[in-house]
Amino acid sequence: xxxxxxxxxxxxxxxxxxxxxxxxxxxxxxxxxxxxxxxxxxxxxxxxxxxxxxxxxxxxxxxxxxxxxxxxxxxxxxxxxxxxxxxxxxxxxxxxxxxxxxxxxxxxxxxxxxxxxxxxxxxxxxxxxxxxxxxxxxxxxxxxxxxxxxxxxxxxxxxxxxxxxxxxxxxxxxxxxxxxxxxxxxxxxxxxxxxxxxxxxxxxxxxxxxxxxxxxxxxxxxxxxxxxxxxxxxxxxxxxxxxxxxxxxxxxxxxxxxxxxxxxxxxxxxxxxxxxxxxxxxxxxxxxxxxxxxxxxxxxxxxxxxxxxxxxxxxxxxx
Length: 319
Known about the structure:
By secondary structure, this protein is α+β, with helices and mostly antiparallel strands. 44% of the residues lie in helices and 12% in strands. The protein folds into 2 domains: 102 residues, no CATH class; 185 residues, C8orf32 fold (Roll), CATH 3.10.620. It contains 12 helices and 8 strands. It has a 4-stranded antiparallel β-sheet with strand order 5-4-3-8. α1 runs antiparallel to α5. The chain is globular, with a radius of gyration of 22 Å.
């Protein structure tokens, strides 16, 4: 691992600790391999330990966040999470020492003329791109309401990243969650959600998808199985989205609306969702559907009030 060289009159403590933490993490992943996404973790760890990352600590920091995110979604063994946290702490210590001048060092010069290869964008197949940008009965992004709203949000940013972030915050913050705000109308179709300015987590995910698809941005639907009252049965599905980002692949976002104890954000590559899976019968369902689940649509179109919906929230049986 080609870490920076330090001037001889400084102690190399923070850098040595960081190098050791990366080695410990990699060894632990290798020892416990195979487990879900272990090969992907090893690939990202090797990327973080590469010369390019060591010479760009901001790049290393981003990869640590991505590694933490992969491990969390994969329900990686507890020791893996602990080692990742140690790496993060040790990197923080190195950055502090750099900032206050405790460490004086220079990048290694053995590959001075090596050019860093540009990040190759990750591409969806044309078939998947069509699949995840499709107009449909529920995700009716071709509706005039959706197009008008999309154009307004688009005018507030300069990049695709800006647009995705602005759409997420628009749906999260300006479309009240029906249960939180005691709005009794049950919405389902994206244009309905926009018209009535309210929706459940499911309905808000429909609107978010429509606004992103209006600009040909691939987006799908994800679900968590959560405890309704956060203390065991009954359980229900919670709806959110996954948007395809060319730098990070599929990235989950949850625009259900923040409140006390809920702080969902758009901060790639870290996923900061509304709810964490904490109980044995809760799950992050791994699938990314191109359309909302039929059981979700049926529930929204069957129940006449938000209160009635709340007492009949859709659930699935774990296999």
